[in-house]
Amino acid sequence: MTQTTTLPVFRRILLKLSGEVLMGNQSYGIDTDFVAGLAAEVKAAKETGLELCLVIGGGNIFRGMAGAAKGMDRAQADYMGMLATIMNALAMQSALEKLGVDTRVQSAIQMDAVCEPVIRRRAERHLQKGRVVIFAAGVGAPYFTTDSGAALRAAEMQCDALFKGTSVDGVYNADPKKCAPVRHDRLRHRPGRKPAGHGCLRRGAVPRQHDPDRGVFDPRAWQSCQGPGGRGHPDYRQKGNLTWPNMTRPISNAG
Question: Cα–Cα distance between 214 and 216 in angstroms, integer?
Answer without folding.
Answer: 6
